[in-house]
Amino acid sequence: MISTLLLVFIDQLKIRCELIQLYENFNSLKIEKTIGWSCLNNQYPIVYNCKYGMDLIKVDMSCNEIQHKITEILPHFQVQIYVDIYFYGDLNAEDKIVILIDEQQWQNTYLPTLTQPLGKSHQCISYDQNRNYQIRKTLVIDLSHNIENLNLVLRSTLSQNFETKSYLFRNLQIFYNPCSKTCKTCNGGQTNQCTSCYQNIPLTSGTCSSCKWNINLTFLLIPKGCVVQCPDEYSYDKDKVCQKNSKLITYTASQLIKNKESYQISGNLESSVILLRLTLKVELSGKNQVVLQINGKKIATISQFNIQAKLKYQYLQTMKQQIIEFDAPINSGQFIIKIDGSKKIFAFNVLPKVKVQYFVCALNCQLCKDNENCEICLQNYFLYFGECLTTCPDPTIVSNKSCIYPLQLNYDESLEVRILVKEFYDFSTTKERVNELFTLQETNNSIYNFQKGEQIYFSYLDKKRIFGGPFVWVNAKFKFDLKLENIRENIVIYFDVILGDEKMNRTVFHYKINSQDEKTLILNNKKDLKLDQNWSDDYCVDVISVRETIEYQDNNNQLIILFYCDNSFNNANTTFCGIQNLIVAIQPPKSGESGLSEEEEQIDDQDLESTFEISICGDEKVSEDEECDDGNLVPFDGCFNCQYQCQYLCQFCIKGECLFMFEEQSFKQTESNISQGLDEKLLQVCHIYCEICIQGICLQCQTGYYMNIISNICESKCGDIIISGQEQCDDGNLDNYDGCSDCQFNEYENCPKLQTCAVCHYDKCLKCIDGYTLENNKCISICGDALINKLEEQCDNPNEKGCVNCQIETGYVCSGISYSVCKTCGDYCTVCQTINQFNLICKDCLIGYYPVLDRCLECDKNCISCKGQSNLCTSCYRSDCELCESVPGFYTDFERKRCFAQCGDGILVIDEEECDDGNIEDADGCDSQCKIEFAQKQLNDLLVWHFNGNSSYEFSLMNSEYKLELNCQDPLIAIDGMDKNDFFFNISVINNICRVEFVFFKSVFKSNTIHVELSLSFQENRLLYQNNVRVIQFDIQPNEQIILSADEKMQANQIANVQQSFGFLFVLIIPVSIVTNLYEYLWGVLEILSWVNNFYFLNVHYPFNVEIFLLNQDWSAFVALPTYQGLNQPDCSYYFAAPLKFQNKGIDPLFFNNIQIPFIFIITIFLIYELNFILLSLLNALISVENNKIQINHKHFSIFCLQAKRKTQQTQVQQLQQDRRRTHS
């Protein structure tokens, strides 16, 4: 019984899971971050804070447009958006709030100062009390949407500051309705509502098949498409759709270690491991094999074309390099994986790669209860329904390291609770779910109810959506209705009632469960909950927990709860009722109280355990996704990989039993003989009315008979409108007075029965036999009356194809006494023949299909045509009958029946394409026909290089229509006459120019040609050749450079010092030679030394010491005259460099630079002469001036002295006179 209940529970979960939460924000009381949202001015939105209650996001004049973009949404066809909008201040009809979702617009206007329904805010700061009137509305927007991005915009038309008027919002959630898992896009959630499929999968009647029928790309990763294998820590279902699985963990140390002649991986896993998943990538050739072992047990033998395995495995890739996935049950945390390396059979072309993943029953689990649930968690974790959590979710409580619901108290905690309904504990309860569970019965004082919107029966508290709540549920009655079927356990109901009011003892709440008495709750306690800005400091709020139990005898397969918020007084605007943490569950009674026998309880537990059992092929247990399980993985034994499979050449296979083997002679027999032989074989061992029988077991009955699963006998069924067995008639009803009762004819009043009348009364026909219509007490046959007259009509259905003028067309069979249903062979059948009244056989099919009974099945992709089986090709696209796609770059042309190479796919096909750059554009090096557009000589003409000084060279390409560019990475450089140790280089890229700077460790001469190889590519596309690289070579004649060793440098310094001393001595000899009249000899010596200096410029490689001597030998000038060196520089357009020896001597090839020294010497002589003349004139002038100054100063001094003396004498006389006066006085 528990398994039945569990199916009901799972069915309810499916309903709830149609909408999946995509995004939620601004649901906490305090909003701290607005990351991801932006205003038009690229600023973050402004948060409006309240002292108590909920923070809000402003949409006012300072930030009148706020937007947020969500990307990479999984395939879906609908989104649903919830948002609470708040309105404040002097809003008028021109002040609007607009919500745009991908440019689709919703617009509303509200006038708080006129309606004033919610009163004033008590907690938000800065509210002008004259404008402190509010409205809050919950918007629920349903939108058809199927693109992967969603852009949400909130925009207001406000033009005044916040204190005057404002819009605000919070409590945002976005849900989406997903497509069926194999759809890329869709217009509904059913499997037949796809509008496009992934990659090359065809769309058939709105349905997309899975990738599992592809070759190599057999897994579907949403939304990427078909892939070789699922990513790490992704599991997959029976359709091979990848799904993120937190219980699948990658073993990080998956590295092979060579051990003698084998490779192995070993390690320790978590104690909660239940299954080991091993992915092996191996490349084999010839008859080479490898043997795989896990924990000392041989698991599989793998060759290039075959696998013999004892475990369930999957081929992820079957080309030259095989990728195989094995699933191995494991009951210990330790494992050793070994790839046997026997010399006789072991040979790898490439070292194999192994990836180890493992399943656990639960994360952070110490001991597993079964394959899906944990029994004991690790330390600091709590057990919650088989999972291990760091904290217990609301409203559970901690008990013995487990999270239990309050409804489990006073019960045996070892008995597992099965939850039927769990709502209003977070944001997952949608509007549809609320309307599904609750029905509004009656409402009073409607002015206070549902002020947040029509049919909005919910509101928000901190991080939670509750039923009812402030400004929603004030005075109304709701009915909670839940269907219960075949439940024989106790029903436990738990919920929290939230009551709020400005005063105590006047808010009343009633509830009544099924036939139990009504119970009443009153607000008579106050808890310190500040959850709404409209609540004053002394606002009264209480949360009352309710727990009720219903015995299984009293549930009547239905749970009905009446909830009544009874606040009928006036001015009840701030009063409310709410419900949170609503849970309905079943808890099995203690042993002996259930009313079930021990055998029934044991069976139910086994059913429940099998529901959560992991499918393991080879364990001799048939799971939900398995057709069979014979305990091995041997092919062609009737069951392979837990799917039915017959022998290789079996022509007719039913559930692993081959009825006919393919033989050349038997295949030439006619289909009628085959059918006759089949019937004879079946009738020998089965009931007479059995159509298909295998080893005495009937698999299918004839038309009109039904299988008795107990006796395995085909029996007729009265009332199916088919006359069979001992039935005289079958009119398909239970009317005993219409001529046919219990499928036997009835006669009344012993009337003579006419040939066409079934029931007569006093010579009047009351009912005709089948196929006739009663008209004026007569039975007549009318073609088109949907009744078959067996004497004249074969069928009767003028609107059905296959029945024309009540006669069956060739290639059709029609059945049914009334309103015939006709059918023909399946699609793609070209020749359809009738076997008997009910069966057809297809004799021939379109090319690419082969006939099986009345259908045409598709040949394998590598076959053009086939016969008998899909893999028995009679003609192929390739001579070896392999898939075209098995060779990279080849595709199948199903119309022309050949393999072809697709130009522009970026894959080079040898002998078919010269190049393939991933497009079909011309003038990019590879034309639209994948032909190379230019030769090597054309490339060589575009090469440009030049010397940049300091052993630096720059390489580039001339501009061309092909937009070529050099790849400066990883150049190949070689120098004639030098080893790699004789030089070092560094390469850099500047404005698409490759610059190579050399450091030489030995002397470089022009004979040491430098060869630089670089690869060539295009700025937009990559040119592909056989080696995927186009190489060009620069050949450079280097500038000569003398590189000295340490000894040579010391010797060069010594030579330079000697030459310097000699030069100084020579300067001292010059005046001596003039005095002694020997300067002519000295001049001759100087002339000889100058000629010796010219020997340096000869094209001769002198010995090192001679080279240094000649280099430092320079007697052309003893004085360095200034010259202008701004001409003929490397950055000049006319620059030409002198040979190295001339550069070393400082000789410039420019004529102007050479004549500067004599020209400046002459100018210098004239300048010195002029300076000397000016200086002499200046000195003469100064002498004259000084002479004049001496005469004038002498005369002035004499007069001055006379005047000074006279003044001194007068001062002395005056002083004597004053002294005398003082004495007399």
UniProtKB/TrEMBL annotation:
<dbReference type="InterPro" id="IPR006212">
    <property type="entry name" value="Furin_repeat"/>
</dbReference>
<keyword id="KW-1015">Disulfide bond</keyword>
<keyword id="KW-0677">Repeat</keyword>
<feature type="transmembrane region" description="Helical">
    <location>
        <begin position="1159"/>
        <end position="1183"/>
    </location>
</feature>
<dbReference type="InterPro" id="IPR011936">
    <property type="entry name" value="Myxo_disulph_rpt"/>
</dbReference>
<dbReference type="Pfam" id="PF13948">
    <property type="entry name" value="DUF4215"/>
</dbReference>
<keyword id="KW-0732">Signal</keyword>
<protein>
    <recommendedName>
        <fullName>Insulin-like growth factor binding protein, N-terminal</fullName>
    </recommendedName>
</protein>
<keyword id="KW-1133">Transmembrane helix</keyword>
<keyword id="KW-0472">Membrane</keyword>
<keyword id="KW-0812">Transmembrane</keyword>
